[in-house]
User: Fold 5-formyltetrahydrofolate cyclo-ligase from Rhodococcoides kyotonense.
Amino acid sequence: MTPVSKQEWRRRIVASRRSVDADVRVAESLKLCHAAADSARGTAAVAAYVPVGSEPGSLDLLDALRRESSVVMVPVAGEPGPLHWAEYTGRDSLKAARYGLLEPTGEILDPASVSRCDVVFIPALAVDLRGVRLGRGAGFYDRTLDLVGTGVPVVAVVRDGELVDELPEEQHDRRCSHALTPSRGLVSLSGE
Ligand SMILES: Nc1nc2c(c(=O)[nH]1)N(C=O)[C@@H](CNc1ccc(C(=O)N[C@@H](CCC(=O)O)C(=O)O)cc1)CN2
Ligand SMILES: Nc1ncnc2c1ncn2[C@@H]1O[C@H](COP(=O)(O)OP(=O)(O)OP(=O)(O)O)[C@@H](O)[C@H]1O
Assistant:
């Protein structure tokens, strides 16, 4: 049966992510790493995130982005509101932060600094074919995506089965333009 509430979607996806074998996870991470690098080639600045727990992605992916783009920014989460940012300068500069996250120790950049990014990779539990994204439920990215430049790809990074037909959408939800999945790489979403 199709789950209806966002909460139920979150519960199922988190459970499914936790059950993924380590070798599958490593293989998926490698594919995402290559696909993300392809999508960021030749850019001046990109935004991405430091994956924690069972989230898709890896520090290798961030390091690959650094080789493709002059600046890689990752979020710094404070009180719910638009995300602040800091430059990812390598894994040694990360420290444990609130909400169980890993964040850079360097200078904190204000929310509007995301506007200089040419591609924005964002964490998601799922995304649908219209670009509707399911996040962790604090609304950080909904408050952030209005600051991203017009026409800039907003790319939800998910496992293959997390690109789904339809998610519940609320008025405040901001849509993504693309998904990035291990098997399909960069997928353009219709925005309908
Ligand atoms: N890796 C990563 N970084 C990210 C995000 C993400 O989803 N993944 N975010 C995407 O938006 C922002 C942080 N978003 C968050 C959204 C909700 C909660 C949350 O509900 N926390 C629970 C406690 C969770 C715990 O400790 O396990 C809480 O506050 O009750 C935390 C962070 C910015 N950085
Ligand atoms: N632009 C906004 N202004 C004020 N509140 C907002 C805004 N966007 C979202 N919210 C609040 O954030 C709450 C969580 O939103 P939602 O469940 O869509 O989060 P999410 O996108 O899954 O989370 P995240 O982006 O943190 O991963 C909403 O109930 C809403 O109250």
